[in-house]
Design brief:
Helix content is 26%, strand content 18%. The chain is built from eight helices and ten strands. The chain is extended and about 115 Å long.
């Protein structure tokens, strides 16, 4: 544009610093007056964005790298999170597990006595400070008392059936269960073997010296020293079954 000041009509014109147009030199040399109001410089009159919770990576203490870390809302800060435990039963997983492996044909429940009482005594004696991870009893259910089998089921004991006509069937099943327990759990787990069979000596040795487990042996009379030497503790089965109450039979209504 051209300068509109009537007093500057005969004044030399020059290029304006505000763009490709002409104005007089006097106007050009005057300090520029900003036409932008302070209100226009301010943030536009639009609503500010709403604050939203941003997922923040939180380490749960498991050693997971940051790339594999699960994102949790930032609202979880300051709240107690469970590092261990199962949502089903709430038992902390950092409590050492214990597994019981019972050769009931080798160490049988005394006649007329309660299998439930035997299970209760084993649990009360060896489970302090531990969580029950396994309790298995191996037998041929066709040759075991039906009442004993029912009592074991009532106690939530796993009854594994084997064919008694097959040689060493019970031993093989217990060995398999012991190996699986060793693969699933780690030290300081505890294994309680209820048997007097010397054939378990190698399994107990591996559990103690290779896996670092605590080994408890509940044995019958005349247990071999080759078996006893691999146990941290050994208890006579007769001590567990001493003074057991008589089985109470409940008649069907």
């Amino acid at each position: 544009h051209f300068c509109s000041n009537s007093l500057h009509l005969n004044v030399e014109r020059t290029v304006c610093g505000n763009g490709a147009h002409f104005c007089c030199q006097e106007c050009f040399l005057q300090p520029k007056i900003s036409t932008t109001s302070e209100s226009e410089k301010a943030w536009p009159k639009v609503p500010a964005p709403h604050a939203a919770s941003v997922p923040v990576p939180i380490c749960n203490g498991c050693g997971t790298s940051s790339d594999a870390m699960v994102l949790k809302p930032s609202t979880t800060f300051g709240k107690t999170t469970h590092k261990y435990g199962s949502p089903e039963n709430g038992v902390p997983e950092n409590i050492p597990p214990v597994g019981v492996f019972w050769d009931i044909e080798n160490c049988s429940v005394p006649s007329g006595r309660s299998a439930e009482a035997v299970v209760q005594r084993i649990r009360s004696r060896f489970f302090q400070g531990h969580r029950e991870a396994e309790f298995i009893c191996v037998c041929d259910i066709s040759k075991e008392s039906r009442v004993v089998i029912q009592e074991l089921n009532n106690c939530q004991v796993t009854v594994a059936h084997i064919n008694a006509t097959a040689k060493n069937a019970a031993d093989d099943k217990l060995r398999q269960s012991l190996r699986r327990f060793a693969e699933t759990h780690a030290a300081p787990a505890t294994v309680v073997l209820v048997s007097s069979d010397v054939n378990f000596a190698s399994e107990l040795s591996d559990l103690r010296h290779r896996h670092g487990f605590q080994v408890v042996l509940v044995h019958g009379n005349h247990a071999s020293s080759a078996l006893l030497q691999h146990a941290h503790r050994h208890v006579a089965f007769q001590e567990i079954t001493a003074d057991l109450p008589q089985r109470v039979l409940v008649k069907a209504q």
